Amino acid sequence: MNGLCRTRQTMCDRWLHFNDLPFELMCEIFDYLPLRDIRNASLVCQHWHEIIFSEVYIHRFRLLLNLDQALPALRQMALLLEASEREYYSVVLRANLGSPLTEARLKIVKLMIRLLAHTADSLYFNMADFRIESCVSERSLRGRRLQIIDTRAKYIPLGMGLKESMLAAICEYAINLVDLVIAEMNINNPKALVPLSSLRSLKLLLISDYYPYVKPTEPPIELPALENLSLIGVTDESCHYFRVDNLKRFFIHSTGTDAPRTMDFITQNITGVARLCLHFTARSIQADVIFGWLERFPNLLALELAGVALPVDVLKHLNPANRLQKLIFVGCHLEAILLDEFCVKLGRLRLLCFDRCSLFHRDSGFHPIHHKDLEQLRTMLPRCQIMLDYE
Length: 391
Description:
Elements: H1 2-15, H2 23-30, H3 35-41, H4 46-52, H5 55-58, E1 62-66, H6 71-83, E2 90-95, H7 103-117, E3 122-126, E4 131-136, H8 137-140, E5 141-150, H9 160-173, E6 179-183, E7 204-208, E8 221-222, E9 228-234, E10 242-243, E11 249-254, H10 259-269, E12 275-280, H11 287-293, E13 302-306, E14 309-310, E15 326-330, E16 333-334, H12 342-345, E17 351-355, E18 358-361, E19 365-368, H13 375-380, E20 385-387
Parallel strand pairs: 1-2, 2-5, 3-6, 6-7, 7-9, 8-10, 9-11, 11-12, 12-13, 13-15, 14-16, 15-17, 16-18, 17-20
Antiparallel strand pairs: 3-4, 4-5, 18-19
Helix pairs in contact: 6-7, 7-9
């Protein structure tokens, strides 16, 4: 009798083992867990790990919603999403972006942004394709994602109202954001950036394709914690809209062609940086003027200058009292490898780099700089590290 009971008990134990459940049923059970617990469950055993990271189960975290539904259906959808505790790694909202941006549709968009941004330290917002992604692990790996897709394939709407609403939602729901990238902005109204002032913990801000057409009516946007500001593919006026007293690094890739005008806009609100990166698209930029303006940056230790022509007397306006320790030329055309007054004007220099630069040869024109071209400089500057590539 005892042997029979033991046999039945053994059979029951085998029948009731969790790992013997069907794949679909185990997925249903795992669905009750938030993403943090799902990650922990994947570490329990190899079997659970294979289920959780299987392609079938991963796609359970993808949500596809149609925002073109009637108003009652949209309201019901919003109520369901608010009541749900499910976390999605990818949300796709399909909508006719040419239609009016109703409050019901916008509510769902904001709700998804709130869920996405609630625990994110870093966000990437591509305004060209209405995509927001959270970034984790050293600001490089993309985590959860939200994208809005136009249902009309042949029509590309401007969607200015939607862009500004999505940016405002980020600033409202992610007030502790540390890093923010706004790519392909293509908004020329500076008022769209005013909500950024609520991000008091922001340390890194990158904005590309920003062409403001008027000066702001309100004071510049203050970002007290910002340490790194990058403006890529922008007009000179774009840097006028920010006040950043604790900035350590400023990068601008300007479409302007007037060096004094560019430097004037920069120095109105940005002068305390230790590193200044100036990239231009026009070789006609007066590089000597830029060096003359450097005395407005009392803490400047590193200068990166790109895309300009460097005459032999380019340092003529540089104040010898400057504190420059690093000088990086990127994609520049040099008239001579040894610039006039180099040793006098740059006595504190410890690193000099020529990254993808060209040197003029009287007989054959411009050619890429090679190691042999730097031998004279290395002899004259034994305490300065001279490089061809900068990382």
